[in-house]
């Protein structure tokens, strides 16, 4: 469900998203716990605003631009291209009066995903090569460096069995990131992540800091 405000109006619409491998196995993810994020055209929460409580594949239908936002509840992944493409950024509850400067973003937010809060165990299997080939390891907690822990210098595919995860291109949860929902990811290169090496992984939890 999304809401957007313009000239005193509070209009309500519904967003639909297509099925994908990463939308399966969501029964333990607490889908009834809805998040809420408000986007603003200008810095410091000024100008027209757009409230979102679900995924939004293209914000241009509601705002011409976005320079600040406020996460009132839950966690969201935001993208600098439509249809959940481009660089990804994780946002937890808080105020982002000038998020481009605060987070090092080069472009405005163009789409966003709400991240359901997961209540059960976390499990993900990472693979050294595409199509689940090469060395593999199963994770149930955060890993700050796959080279140190597993002597694994690359990760090109994975299978997320339980929970929601963030994968980072550098050790210690640094650098560019990618949001992983439950499902099979046979090739990060085919997902537009060509040339990226994911070296650390972190669970998205209620206590995420």
UniProtKB/TrEMBL annotation:
What UniProt keywords apply to this chain's record, in alphabetical order? Eye lens protein, Repeat
Q: Name one GO molecular function term.
A: structural constituent of eye lens
Database matches in SMART domains? XTALbg
Q: Cross-referenced InterPro entries, in alphabetical order?
A: Beta/Gamma-Crystallin, Beta/gamma_crystallin, G_crystallin-like
Residue span, Beta/gamma crystallin 'Greek key' domain? 35-73, 74-116, 163-200
One Pfam family, short name = Crystall
Q: Keyword rRNA-binding, does the record have it?
A: no
Which superkingdom, per the lineage?
A: Eukaryota
One GO biological process from the UniProt record? lens development in camera-type eye
Cited SUPFAM superfamilies: gamma-Crystallin-like
- Family classification: Belongs to the beta/gamma-crystallin family.
Instruction: Describe the function of this protein.
Output: Crystallins are the dominant structural components of the vertebrate eye lens.
Name under which the protein is recorded: Beta/gamma crystallin 'Greek key' domain-containing protein
